[in-house]
Write a structure and sequence with these properties.
two-stranded antiparallel sheet, alpha+beta
Length: about 190
């Protein structure tokens, strides 16, 4: 019923005396005019910010053999925060990278921000050595329109989604004070440049 335009039919008897008889009520059922059915929208997979496999690596070989590109992670809501924390810690500690790139879109943005704020406390570095920079933006994504009727033509539509890129760097020795007169406990912001 929501896909139709309902137009009441008026009887002449209603116009004359302002009242409608039972016989007139039966005759004056609403006329339902069907509207064109809306096409089904299929969301296509957006373009990845980083390639899945770097061009210099073997795409069919095991993932454990690849070293290049392991520090670039696309955050989704499907993977738990604990798995991302373990993977990011492995990138810094075991693989020896000094930079980590996180990218997320849409509903995964809060997940990526929580990951970026939780990660410094799990790393074996001084929090003042961890520098984080955040870049926000938007990405155009395509949707495929699948028509309900066979007579109609399908097509595509473009929409924009919010995106975020977070770069976490380990800068040894930066931000460390040698002056012993200052207190050992200082406030810090892991999101400052």
């Amino acid at each position: 019923m929501s896909d139709a335009l309902i137009k009441p039919a008026l009887d002449d008897s209603l116009k004359k005396n302002g009242k409608q008889s039972n016989r007139a009520k039966k005759r004056n059922r609403p006329i339902v005019i069907p509207l064109k059915p809306k096409p089904k929208i299929v969301k296509l997979a957006p373009k990845r910010p980083y390639p899945t496999v770097p061009t210099s690596s073997n795409a069919t070989g095991p993932r454990s053999k690849r070293k290049e590109g392991n520090n670039k992670i696309c955050v989704t809501r499907r993977t738990d925060l604990g798995a991302y924390l373990k993977r990011c810690k492995h990138v810094f500690v075991k693989e020896g990278f000094k930079e980590l790139y996180l990218a997320a879109m849409g509903a995964a943005i809060p997940h990526a921000v929580m990951l970026a704020t939780s990660l410094p406390s799990t790393l074996p570095y001084d929090p003042r050595e961890i520098k984080t920079s955040v870049t926000t933006g938007s990405v155009s994504v395509m949707d495929e329109l699948v028509p309900v009727d066979e007579d109609d033509e399908g097509g595509t539509q473009t929409r924009t989604k919010a995106s975020i890129e977070i770069i976490i760097r380990i800068v040894p020795g930066e931000g460390m004070d040698i002056d012993a007169s200052k207190s050992a406990v200082q406030e810090y912001d892991s999101f400052s440049d």
